Amino acid sequence: MTRGPRAGGRDLFDRDSEVSQVVEGLGHPLTVISGIRRIGKISVLNVALSEVNAVTLIIDCRRLRPNYSRAELYSLFSEALSSRLDRVVDLLRGLRGASIMGSGVELRWRGRDSVSLADLLDRLNSRRAVIALDEAQRLRGPLSTEARDAIAHAYDYDRNVSFVLTGSEAGLLYDFIGLEDESSPLYGRYFRDVRLERFSRGQSVEFLRRGFNELGVEVSDDVIEGIAEYFDGIPGWLTFAGLRVAEGRGP
After folding, report:
1. Each residue of 52-82: pLDDT tens digit?
2. Nearest-5° angle of CA 195, CA 196, CA 201?
3. Which of 101, 162, 206, 224 has a Cα-to-Cα distance from 93 of 20 to 30 A?
């Protein structure tokens, strides 16, 4: 029982099947992980990414405004590249529109010396790369076509680049991909679909018991059963409640 998403290692409770599905999906151009908020999508993603030898970029699309600008979109990619600069600095040298400034990367998105997302993906294709877009349904909006076009370009031409899209609003996520939209560049493309479900009541109880044992805290069965019933199989909330109890601030 830990605060925040798991960073790696197969100690993620009862999600081995989902992690294996994602790892297998990384051998394909596109994987989608869906599930309600706090169900553990990022934990599953992190564990899967820890098992592949690749440059991994995680982009938090929650930071995009509903009518986000191109500057905002490219800024997120710049920050993701900056966070992995040691792995990508040699790939970015000489790429028009990409500047390495100290410990950061700046992507120019307008003007003669700008870089397109497709150009960036082509360069990353020189090495195995996985790009994860967290809450990717937030890419819907004025620039959704540009984002989908870039993913479709990599799907067709960049064999070393894979995308993982996560989303807590499955309908909007699949709408962004364009599952039923013949005008979408991703229409009809195969993708690995991984859906995270709630824990069962028994799984929730076992999850809490193991967590309390890890923390060295004794908790009555009644308290554990009560938490499991109230939070209805959502790992994030089970963890929150368990930690509150362990800190002496819960029931």
Report:
1. 999 999 999 999 999 999 999 999 999 999 9
2. 140
3. 162
Alpha-carbon span 37 to 26, nearest angstrom:
23
**Which parts of the chain fold into alpha helices (H)?**
16-25, 41-49, 70-83, 85-92, 117-124, 144-157, 170-177, 201-215, 221-231, 235-246
Question: Quick check: helix, strand or coil at residue 198?
Answer: coil
Strands 104-107 and 98-101: antiparallel
Q: What is the C-alpha to C-alpha distance for residues 148 and 183, in angstroms, rounded to an integer?
A: 11
- Condensed to tens digits (0 to 9), the pLDDT of residues 147-168 reads 999 999 999 999 999 999 999 9
The mean pLDDT of the chain is: 93
Give pTM, 2 decimals: 0.91
Separation of alpha carbons 175 and 184, rounded Å: 10
Question: Band of the pLDDT at 180, cuts 50, 70, 90?
Answer: confident
- Burial of 183 by CB count in 10 Å (0-12 exposed, 13-18 middle, 19+ buried)? exposed
Per the CB < 8 A criterion, the answer to whether 69 and 146 are in contact is: no
Return the CA Rg of the chain.
20
Q: State which amino acid sits at residue 176.
A: F
Q: Which two tokens mark 224?
A: 């554990």
Tokens of 62: 């929650």
Q: Which two tokens mark 89?
A: 């600095």
d(CA 36, CA 19): 17
CA–CA dist 148, 81 (Å, integer): 20
